[in-house]
Design a protein that fits this description.
The chain is globular and about 45 Å long. With 127 residues, the protein is an all-alpha fold. The protein has one domain.
């Protein structure tokens, strides 16, 4: 998943907390949110930055919840952000984990499988 596709996907799933999000989907959208916030602080008035940050808050939390679902964890574990440093380190570690197999949150995202697994196919099947 590329940058633009990730941003479009996360904005289309604005408040969808169900399902799973791949590494690329989550991290590209997190980067987009950071870029928008930093550029907003440089270019615009503080109240405009606050509005944009609030507008991106829900999709970022939803993407984080779907990312945790991808590794088999509850989205409520995002509340660990409340715990300085220790909670942040745990969540960053979990967000960097590769996609797991199918779990009770659904099938793995299409782009969530490592490239080697995606390219390999059984004889007679297309990758």
């Amino acid at each position: 998943m590329d940058f633009v596709t990730s941003v479009k996907t996360c904005l289309q799933k604005y408040a969808q907390f169900e399902g799973r999000a791949s590494l690329a989907e989550f991290w590209w959208f997190a980067l987009f949110s950071l870029i928008v916030h930093v550029l907003g602080k440089v270019i615009f008035q503080p109240w405009i930055v606050a509005l944009v940050t609030l507008a991106l808050f829900v999709p970022l939390i939803a993407a984080g919840s779907r990312r945790l679902h991808d590794i088999g964890k509850s989205g409520w574990l995002q509340l660990l952000w409340i715990i300085p440093i220790f909670g942040w380190m745990i969540l960053l570690y979990w967000a960097a984990q590769p996609s797991g197999p199918a779990n009770h949150y659904g099938q793995p995202p299409v782009d969530g499988a490592p490239p080697m697994q995606r390219a390999e196919a059984a004889p007679g099947q297309q990758p």
